Amino acid sequence: MPNLKAKRDAQVAQVESALKNCAAELVERALAHFKENPAPKSTPRGLRDILGSSVVAHDDLWTTEDEERLQNDCASREDAFAAVQGSAQLLTAWKSCIQSMRCSPLAIISPRHSLFVHQEATRARGQNLATTDGLLWPQSLYTELVTLVSSPIWLGEPLALSAAIQFAVICRTDERRPWRMPCVTSCQGMEALKRRAMRPLDVSPSDTLEEVSVNVEEAGNGLSVMFQLLRSIGESVTSGSALGRAEGPVKYEVTVQDLKSIREAIDSLQIGSAAPVVLPTSVSEALAKLGRASCPPSSAELVDFHRRSWLHERRLATRDSRQRQRDSAGSRRLGESRGSQDEPREFSSDRSDNGQLQPMLGQPRCHWEIDELSSVSNSDIFLDNLDESEDVHQDGAQRDEEEDGALTRQRRAERRRERDEEDD
To answer: Where is the region Disordered (predicted)?
Structure first.
Protein backbone atom coordinates (compact mmCIF):
# COMPACT_ATOMS: atom_id res chain seq x y z
CA MET A 1 0.00 0.00 0.00
CA PRO A 2 2.75 2.57 0.79
CA ASN A 3 4.18 2.03 -2.69
CA LEU A 4 0.78 2.63 -4.30
CA LYS A 5 0.29 5.78 -2.23
CA ALA A 6 3.72 7.05 -3.19
CA LYS A 7 3.02 6.34 -6.85
CA ARG A 8 -0.28 8.18 -6.69
CA ASP A 9 1.30 11.13 -4.85
CA ALA A 10 3.93 11.30 -7.58
CA GLN A 11 1.22 11.33 -10.25
CA VAL A 12 -0.64 14.12 -8.47
CA ALA A 13 2.57 16.11 -8.15
CA GLN A 14 3.20 15.63 -11.87
CA VAL A 15 -0.27 16.91 -12.66
CA GLU A 16 0.06 19.92 -10.36
CA SER A 17 3.38 20.80 -11.95
CA ALA A 18 1.96 20.58 -15.45
CA LEU A 19 -1.10 22.64 -14.55
CA LYS A 20 1.04 25.68 -13.83
CA ASN A 21 1.52 26.07 -17.57
CA CYS A 22 -2.20 26.00 -18.43
CA ALA A 23 -5.09 28.42 -18.25
CA ALA A 24 -6.99 27.87 -15.00
CA GLU A 25 -10.39 28.02 -16.73
CA LEU A 26 -9.53 25.17 -19.09
CA VAL A 27 -8.21 23.07 -16.23
CA GLU A 28 -11.38 23.56 -14.21
CA ARG A 29 -13.44 22.62 -17.26
CA ALA A 30 -11.50 19.39 -17.71
CA LEU A 31 -11.78 18.49 -14.03
CA ALA A 32 -15.51 19.20 -14.11
CA HIS A 33 -15.87 16.92 -17.13
CA PHE A 34 -14.36 13.96 -15.29
CA LYS A 35 -16.44 14.71 -12.19
CA GLU A 36 -19.71 14.91 -14.15
CA ASN A 37 -18.89 11.84 -16.24
CA PRO A 38 -17.76 9.13 -13.83
CA ALA A 39 -16.48 5.80 -15.07
CA PRO A 40 -19.27 3.50 -16.28
CA LYS A 41 -20.05 0.33 -14.40
CA SER A 42 -19.67 -3.16 -15.88
CA THR A 43 -23.42 -3.72 -16.12
CA PRO A 44 -25.21 -5.29 -19.10
CA ARG A 45 -27.10 -2.06 -19.74
CA GLY A 46 -23.93 0.06 -19.56
CA LEU A 47 -21.90 -2.22 -21.82
CA ARG A 48 -24.56 -2.77 -24.47
CA ASP A 49 -23.80 0.52 -26.21
CA ILE A 50 -20.06 -0.22 -26.19
CA LEU A 51 -19.96 -3.91 -27.07
CA GLY A 52 -23.29 -4.37 -28.80
CA SER A 53 -26.24 -6.42 -27.64
CA SER A 54 -25.72 -10.07 -26.73
CA VAL A 55 -28.78 -10.80 -28.90
CA VAL A 56 -27.85 -10.22 -32.55
CA ALA A 57 -30.58 -8.74 -34.74
CA HIS A 58 -31.00 -10.25 -38.20
CA ASP A 59 -32.53 -8.55 -41.23
CA ASP A 60 -31.64 -7.85 -44.85
CA LEU A 61 -28.62 -5.78 -43.76
CA TRP A 62 -27.22 -8.56 -41.56
CA THR A 63 -28.48 -12.08 -42.18
CA THR A 64 -28.13 -15.32 -40.26
CA GLU A 65 -25.70 -16.46 -42.97
CA ASP A 66 -23.57 -13.36 -42.32
CA GLU A 67 -23.52 -14.14 -38.61
CA GLU A 68 -22.54 -17.75 -39.22
CA ARG A 69 -19.61 -16.71 -41.42
CA LEU A 70 -18.48 -14.14 -38.87
CA GLN A 71 -18.62 -16.61 -35.99
CA ASN A 72 -16.58 -19.12 -38.01
CA ASP A 73 -14.01 -16.42 -38.72
CA CYS A 74 -13.91 -15.54 -35.03
CA ALA A 75 -13.44 -19.19 -34.04
CA SER A 76 -10.48 -19.48 -36.41
CA ARG A 77 -8.81 -16.58 -34.53
CA GLU A 78 -9.21 -18.05 -31.04
CA ASP A 79 -5.44 -18.39 -30.54
CA ALA A 80 -5.05 -14.75 -31.53
CA PHE A 81 -7.67 -13.68 -28.99
CA ALA A 82 -5.92 -15.74 -26.32
CA ALA A 83 -2.69 -13.83 -27.05
CA VAL A 84 -4.51 -10.59 -26.20
CA GLN A 85 -4.92 -11.65 -22.55
CA GLY A 86 -1.54 -10.49 -21.28
CA SER A 87 -1.39 -7.07 -22.96
CA ALA A 88 -1.17 -4.36 -20.32
CA GLN A 89 -1.08 -1.70 -23.06
CA LEU A 90 -4.33 -2.95 -24.57
CA LEU A 91 -5.97 -3.02 -21.15
CA THR A 92 -4.93 0.60 -20.57
CA ALA A 93 -6.26 1.58 -24.00
CA TRP A 94 -9.58 -0.07 -23.24
CA LYS A 95 -9.92 1.68 -19.89
CA SER A 96 -8.97 5.04 -21.43
CA CYS A 97 -11.43 4.74 -24.31
CA ILE A 98 -14.29 3.74 -22.02
CA GLN A 99 -13.45 6.49 -19.54
CA SER A 100 -13.14 9.35 -22.03
CA MET A 101 -15.29 8.29 -24.99
CA ARG A 102 -17.53 5.44 -23.81
CA CYS A 103 -16.31 3.22 -26.64
CA SER A 104 -13.73 0.55 -27.39
CA PRO A 105 -10.38 1.11 -29.16
CA LEU A 106 -11.76 -0.97 -32.03
CA ALA A 107 -14.58 1.55 -32.50
CA ILE A 108 -12.06 4.33 -33.19
CA ILE A 109 -9.73 2.54 -35.59
CA SER A 110 -12.59 0.64 -37.15
CA PRO A 111 -13.43 -0.85 -40.55
CA ARG A 112 -16.64 1.17 -40.29
CA HIS A 113 -14.48 4.21 -41.07
CA SER A 114 -12.13 2.34 -43.46
CA LEU A 115 -9.45 2.50 -40.76
CA PHE A 116 -6.99 -0.36 -40.28
CA VAL A 117 -3.65 -0.59 -38.51
CA HIS A 118 -0.86 -0.64 -41.09
CA GLN A 119 0.60 -4.10 -41.58
CA GLU A 120 4.13 -2.82 -41.13
CA ALA A 121 3.10 -1.31 -37.79
CA THR A 122 2.16 -4.75 -36.49
CA ARG A 123 5.76 -5.89 -36.99
CA ALA A 124 7.11 -3.62 -34.31
CA ARG A 125 10.60 -4.16 -33.05
CA GLY A 126 10.76 -6.38 -29.98
CA GLN A 127 7.11 -7.45 -30.23
CA ASN A 128 5.89 -10.79 -31.49
CA LEU A 129 2.54 -9.80 -32.99
CA ALA A 130 2.55 -12.32 -35.82
CA THR A 131 0.29 -14.68 -33.92
CA THR A 132 -2.33 -12.05 -33.02
CA ASP A 133 -3.76 -11.77 -36.55
CA GLY A 134 -4.11 -7.99 -36.29
CA LEU A 135 -6.02 -8.16 -33.00
CA LEU A 136 -3.10 -6.72 -31.04
CA TRP A 137 -1.43 -3.48 -32.06
CA PRO A 138 2.07 -2.16 -31.28
CA GLN A 139 2.71 -0.80 -27.79
CA SER A 140 3.67 2.62 -29.15
CA LEU A 141 0.36 2.86 -31.03
CA TYR A 142 -1.59 2.12 -27.84
CA THR A 143 0.49 4.74 -26.02
CA GLU A 144 -0.38 7.41 -28.58
CA LEU A 145 -4.04 6.38 -28.68
CA VAL A 146 -4.34 6.63 -24.89
CA THR A 147 -2.90 10.15 -25.04
CA LEU A 148 -5.29 11.22 -27.80
CA VAL A 149 -8.53 9.88 -26.31
CA SER A 150 -7.75 11.71 -23.06
CA SER A 151 -7.84 15.11 -24.78
CA PRO A 152 -11.01 17.18 -24.24
CA ILE A 153 -10.72 18.54 -27.79
CA TRP A 154 -12.97 15.71 -29.03
CA LEU A 155 -15.74 16.55 -26.53
CA GLY A 156 -15.97 12.85 -25.81
CA GLU A 157 -16.97 12.07 -29.43
CA PRO A 158 -15.04 9.10 -30.91
CA LEU A 159 -16.17 9.98 -34.45
CA ALA A 160 -14.22 13.23 -34.23
CA LEU A 161 -11.03 11.34 -33.37
CA SER A 162 -11.68 8.83 -36.16
CA ALA A 163 -12.04 11.72 -38.62
CA ALA A 164 -8.74 13.23 -37.47
CA ILE A 165 -6.98 9.87 -37.87
CA GLN A 166 -8.46 9.52 -41.34
CA PHE A 167 -7.22 12.98 -42.28
CA ALA A 168 -3.71 12.32 -40.96
CA VAL A 169 -3.49 9.20 -43.16
CA ILE A 170 -5.01 11.07 -46.12
CA CYS A 171 -2.40 13.83 -45.84
CA ARG A 172 0.50 11.41 -45.37
CA THR A 173 -0.48 9.33 -48.41
CA ASP A 174 -1.78 12.27 -50.47
CA GLU A 175 -5.01 10.33 -50.93
CA ARG A 176 -7.27 12.25 -53.32
CA ARG A 177 -10.22 9.96 -53.72
CA PRO A 178 -13.53 11.00 -52.10
CA TRP A 179 -13.38 11.09 -48.31
CA ARG A 180 -16.44 10.01 -46.33
CA MET A 181 -15.96 12.09 -43.19
CA PRO A 182 -17.55 10.37 -40.16
CA CYS A 183 -17.81 13.25 -37.70
CA VAL A 184 -20.65 15.70 -37.24
CA THR A 185 -19.90 19.12 -38.70
CA SER A 186 -19.06 21.79 -36.13
CA CYS A 187 -18.84 24.99 -38.23
CA GLN A 188 -19.35 26.35 -41.74
CA GLY A 189 -15.81 25.28 -42.59
CA MET A 190 -16.44 21.66 -41.59
CA GLU A 191 -19.68 21.61 -43.56
CA ALA A 192 -17.93 23.00 -46.64
CA LEU A 193 -15.07 20.54 -46.24
CA LYS A 194 -17.45 17.61 -45.91
CA ARG A 195 -19.22 18.62 -49.13
CA ARG A 196 -15.94 19.12 -50.98
CA ALA A 197 -14.53 15.81 -49.75
CA MET A 198 -17.36 13.93 -51.44
CA ARG A 199 -15.62 14.52 -54.79
CA PRO A 200 -12.08 13.61 -55.91
CA LEU A 201 -9.52 16.27 -54.98
CA ASP A 202 -7.66 18.30 -57.61
CA VAL A 203 -4.90 19.35 -55.22
CA SER A 204 -3.38 17.93 -52.04
CA PRO A 205 -5.66 17.41 -49.02
CA SER A 206 -3.92 20.18 -47.05
CA ASP A 207 -4.27 22.63 -49.97
CA THR A 208 -7.94 21.70 -50.29
CA LEU A 209 -8.45 22.42 -46.60
CA GLU A 210 -6.71 25.77 -46.97
CA GLU A 211 -8.93 26.72 -49.91
CA VAL A 212 -12.01 25.91 -47.86
CA SER A 213 -10.78 27.91 -44.87
CA VAL A 214 -10.03 30.97 -47.02
CA ASN A 215 -13.50 30.90 -48.57
CA VAL A 216 -15.19 30.50 -45.19
CA GLU A 217 -13.17 33.27 -43.53
CA GLU A 218 -13.77 35.63 -46.47
CA ALA A 219 -17.48 35.03 -45.98
CA GLY A 220 -17.11 36.24 -42.40
CA ASN A 221 -17.64 32.87 -40.73
CA GLY A 222 -15.51 31.52 -37.92
CA LEU A 223 -13.73 28.18 -37.83
CA SER A 224 -14.17 25.63 -35.06
CA VAL A 225 -11.33 24.16 -33.03
CA MET A 226 -11.85 20.87 -34.88
CA PHE A 227 -11.34 22.58 -38.23
CA GLN A 228 -8.25 24.36 -36.93
CA LEU A 229 -6.92 21.00 -35.74
CA LEU A 230 -7.33 19.46 -39.20
CA ARG A 231 -5.54 22.45 -40.71
CA SER A 232 -2.72 22.02 -38.21
CA ILE A 233 -2.47 18.32 -39.12
CA GLY A 234 -2.32 19.19 -42.81
CA GLU A 235 0.45 21.71 -42.22
CA SER A 236 2.61 19.32 -40.21
CA VAL A 237 2.21 16.03 -42.09
CA THR A 238 4.73 15.23 -44.82
CA SER A 239 2.95 13.56 -47.72
CA GLY A 240 4.25 10.56 -49.61
CA SER A 241 3.27 9.25 -53.02
CA ALA A 242 -0.20 10.12 -54.28
CA LEU A 243 -2.82 7.39 -54.18
CA GLY A 244 -5.51 9.38 -55.95
CA ARG A 245 -5.73 6.97 -58.86
CA ALA A 246 -5.70 3.82 -56.74
CA GLU A 247 -8.36 1.26 -57.52
CA GLY A 248 -10.66 -0.60 -55.17
CA PRO A 249 -12.22 0.53 -51.90
CA VAL A 250 -10.54 3.25 -49.87
CA LYS A 251 -8.48 1.82 -47.02
CA TYR A 252 -6.75 4.11 -44.50
CA GLU A 253 -3.81 2.23 -42.97
CA VAL A 254 -2.86 3.86 -39.68
CA THR A 255 0.71 4.13 -38.43
CA VAL A 256 2.11 5.29 -35.11
CA GLN A 257 3.37 8.42 -36.85
CA ASP A 258 -0.18 9.35 -37.84
CA LEU A 259 -1.24 9.42 -34.19
CA LYS A 260 1.91 11.34 -33.25
CA SER A 261 1.06 13.93 -35.90
CA ILE A 262 -2.36 14.45 -34.35
CA ARG A 263 -0.90 14.78 -30.85
CA GLU A 264 1.64 17.34 -32.05
CA ALA A 265 -1.10 19.24 -33.89
CA ILE A 266 -3.20 19.45 -30.72
CA ASP A 267 -0.27 20.76 -28.72
CA SER A 268 0.49 23.38 -31.39
CA LEU A 269 -2.98 24.99 -31.42
CA GLN A 270 -2.90 28.64 -30.36
CA ILE A 271 -5.47 31.44 -30.26
CA GLY A 272 -3.12 34.37 -30.60
CA SER A 273 -2.18 34.57 -26.93
CA ALA A 274 -0.14 32.70 -24.36
CA ALA A 275 -3.11 30.50 -23.43
CA PRO A 276 -3.59 27.36 -25.53
CA VAL A 277 -6.91 26.52 -27.17
CA VAL A 278 -7.01 23.16 -25.40
CA LEU A 279 -5.08 21.45 -22.67
CA PRO A 280 -1.70 20.06 -23.70
CA THR A 281 -2.05 16.33 -24.27
CA SER A 282 0.41 15.52 -21.50
CA VAL A 283 -1.79 17.36 -19.00
CA SER A 284 -5.10 15.90 -20.15
CA GLU A 285 -3.65 12.40 -20.03
CA ALA A 286 -2.28 12.95 -16.53
CA LEU A 287 -5.70 14.15 -15.38
CA ALA A 288 -7.47 11.20 -16.98
CA LYS A 289 -5.03 8.75 -15.44
CA LEU A 290 -6.26 9.57 -11.94
CA GLY A 291 -9.64 7.89 -12.48
CA ARG A 292 -8.70 5.27 -15.03
CA ALA A 293 -8.11 2.32 -12.71
CA SER A 294 -11.79 1.99 -11.75
CA CYS A 295 -12.91 1.74 -15.38
CA PRO A 296 -13.80 -1.59 -17.00
CA PRO A 297 -12.62 -3.98 -18.21
CA SER A 298 -10.68 -5.91 -15.61
CA SER A 299 -7.79 -8.12 -16.68
CA ALA A 300 -10.09 -11.14 -16.58
CA GLU A 301 -12.67 -9.39 -18.78
CA LEU A 302 -10.24 -8.14 -21.43
CA VAL A 303 -10.47 -11.03 -23.91
CA ASP A 304 -14.26 -11.14 -23.75
CA PHE A 305 -14.53 -7.37 -24.21
CA HIS A 306 -12.12 -7.44 -27.15
CA ARG A 307 -13.86 -10.35 -28.85
CA ARG A 308 -17.32 -8.85 -28.48
CA SER A 309 -16.15 -5.49 -29.78
CA TRP A 310 -14.36 -7.11 -32.73
CA LEU A 311 -17.58 -8.90 -33.70
CA HIS A 312 -19.72 -5.79 -33.10
CA GLU A 313 -17.59 -3.52 -35.31
CA ARG A 314 -17.64 -5.98 -38.19
CA ARG A 315 -21.40 -6.32 -38.02
CA LEU A 316 -21.76 -2.55 -38.01
CA ALA A 317 -19.29 -2.14 -40.88
CA THR A 318 -21.28 -4.54 -43.05
CA ARG A 319 -24.57 -2.92 -42.10
CA ASP A 320 -23.26 0.58 -42.85
CA SER A 321 -21.83 -0.51 -46.20
CA ARG A 322 -25.06 -2.16 -47.33
CA GLN A 323 -27.14 0.78 -46.13
CA ARG A 324 -24.96 3.18 -48.15
CA GLN A 325 -25.34 0.98 -51.22
CA ARG A 326 -29.10 0.95 -50.74
CA ASP A 327 -29.23 4.72 -50.24
CA SER A 328 -27.05 5.25 -53.32
CA ALA A 329 -29.25 3.00 -55.44
CA GLY A 330 -32.34 4.80 -54.18
CA SER A 331 -30.81 8.18 -55.02
CA ARG A 332 -29.99 7.02 -58.54
CA ARG A 333 -33.51 5.75 -59.07
CA LEU A 334 -34.94 8.98 -57.72
CA GLY A 335 -32.64 10.96 -60.01
CA GLU A 336 -33.73 8.93 -63.01
CA SER A 337 -37.36 9.48 -62.06
CA ARG A 338 -36.84 13.25 -61.73
CA GLY A 339 -34.77 13.32 -64.89
CA SER A 340 -37.73 12.15 -66.99
CA GLN A 341 -39.41 15.36 -68.16
CA ASP A 342 -43.04 14.30 -68.34
CA GLU A 343 -43.41 10.56 -68.12
CA PRO A 344 -42.02 7.64 -66.15
CA ARG A 345 -39.60 5.73 -68.36
CA GLU A 346 -41.68 2.55 -67.97
CA PHE A 347 -44.27 4.12 -70.31
CA SER A 348 -44.18 4.96 -74.01
CA SER A 349 -44.91 8.44 -75.33
CA ASP A 350 -48.03 7.22 -77.07
CA ARG A 351 -51.34 8.00 -75.45
CA SER A 352 -54.57 6.15 -75.91
CA ASP A 353 -57.77 7.85 -76.92
CA ASN A 354 -58.62 8.67 -73.31
CA GLY A 355 -55.26 10.39 -72.72
CA GLN A 356 -53.73 7.65 -70.59
CA LEU A 357 -50.20 6.44 -71.22
CA GLN A 358 -49.83 2.94 -72.61
CA PRO A 359 -47.16 0.60 -71.21
CA MET A 360 -44.26 -0.20 -73.53
CA LEU A 361 -44.13 -3.73 -74.86
CA GLY A 362 -41.60 -5.87 -73.06
CA GLN A 363 -41.26 -3.41 -70.13
CA PRO A 364 -42.51 -4.13 -66.60
CA ARG A 365 -45.60 -2.26 -65.59
CA CYS A 366 -45.49 0.12 -62.65
CA HIS A 367 -47.30 -0.83 -59.46
CA TRP A 368 -49.21 2.43 -59.41
CA GLU A 369 -52.21 3.60 -61.46
CA ILE A 370 -52.04 6.90 -63.36
CA ASP A 371 -55.21 8.77 -64.32
CA GLU A 372 -54.02 12.34 -64.65
CA LEU A 373 -50.25 12.79 -65.00
CA SER A 374 -50.52 16.54 -65.33
CA SER A 375 -51.09 16.92 -61.59
CA VAL A 376 -48.63 14.26 -60.36
CA SER A 377 -44.85 14.66 -60.50
CA ASN A 378 -42.60 11.75 -61.35
CA SER A 379 -40.77 12.06 -58.01
CA ASP A 380 -44.08 11.92 -56.13
CA ILE A 381 -45.00 8.76 -58.02
CA PHE A 382 -41.62 7.22 -57.20
CA LEU A 383 -41.76 8.12 -53.51
CA ASP A 384 -45.30 6.78 -53.24
CA ASN A 385 -44.11 3.56 -54.82
CA LEU A 386 -41.32 3.23 -52.23
CA ASP A 387 -43.91 3.24 -49.45
CA GLU A 388 -45.70 0.15 -50.74
CA SER A 389 -45.34 -2.95 -48.61
CA GLU A 390 -43.30 -6.00 -49.58
CA ASP A 391 -46.31 -8.23 -50.06
CA VAL A 392 -47.93 -5.71 -52.41
CA HIS A 393 -44.80 -5.79 -54.56
CA GLN A 394 -44.80 -9.57 -54.65
CA ASP A 395 -48.51 -9.79 -55.53
CA GLY A 396 -48.10 -6.99 -58.02
CA ALA A 397 -45.19 -8.71 -59.74
CA GLN A 398 -47.28 -11.84 -60.31
CA ARG A 399 -50.24 -9.78 -61.51
CA ASP A 400 -48.04 -7.74 -63.84
CA GLU A 401 -46.62 -10.87 -65.42
CA GLU A 402 -50.14 -12.09 -66.17
CA GLU A 403 -51.25 -8.69 -67.46
CA ASP A 404 -48.17 -8.32 -69.66
CA GLY A 405 -48.99 -11.63 -71.35
CA ALA A 406 -52.58 -10.58 -71.94
CA LEU A 407 -51.47 -7.16 -73.15
CA THR A 408 -49.05 -8.69 -75.65
CA ARG A 409 -51.74 -10.96 -77.07
CA GLN A 410 -54.12 -8.01 -77.31
CA ARG A 411 -51.57 -5.87 -79.15
CA ARG A 412 -50.83 -8.66 -81.64
CA ALA A 413 -54.53 -9.08 -82.36
CA GLU A 414 -54.86 -5.33 -82.91
CA ARG A 415 -51.94 -5.30 -85.35
CA ARG A 416 -53.40 -8.19 -87.31
CA ARG A 417 -56.71 -6.33 -87.60
CA GLU A 418 -54.87 -3.18 -88.75
CA ARG A 419 -52.96 -5.12 -91.43
CA ASP A 420 -56.18 -6.81 -92.58
CA GLU A 421 -57.89 -3.43 -92.89
CA GLU A 422 -54.95 -2.03 -94.90
CA ASP A 423 -55.05 -5.03 -97.26
CA ASP A 424 -58.77 -4.50 -97.81
So the answer is: 316-361, 382-424
End position of a domain, from candidates 297, 329, 361:
329
316 and 355 share one domain: no
Give the structural domain span for 236: 2-48+68-329
CB neighbour class for 47 (10 Å; exposed up to 12, middle 13-18, buried from 19): buried
pLDDT tens per residue, range 50-68: 898 888 999 999 999 999 9
| pTM of structure | 0.70
pLDDT in tens, 73-115: 999 999 889 889 889 999 999 999 999 999 999 999 999 999 9
Is residue 128 located within the same domain as residue 215?
A: yes
Nearest-angstrom CA–CA distance, 236 and 212: 18
Q: Do 360 and 281 have their domain in common?
A: no
CA-nearest of 98, 84, 178 to 132 is 84
Contact assessment for residue 308 and residue 106, using Cβ atoms and an 8 Å cutoff:
no
Burial track 402-416 (b if 16+ CB lie within 10 A, e otherwise)? eebeeeeeeeeeeee
How many Cα atoms occupy the beta-carbon half-sphere of 294 within 13 Å? 9
Tens of pLDDT along 193-236?
Answer: 999 999 999 999 999 999 999 998 888 888 888 999 999 999 88
Which amino acid is located at 363 in the chain?
Answer: Q
Among candidate residues 331, 283, 328, 262, the one with its CA nearest the CA of residue 109: 262
User: E strand or H helix at 356, and its extent?
Assistant: none
Q: Can you give the pLDDT at residue 109? A: 97
**Residues facing residue 347 across a β-bridge:** 359
Q: Is residue 218 assigned to a domain?
A: yes
On whether residue 58 sits in a domain, the answer given is: no
Query: 12 with 136, same domain?
Result: yes
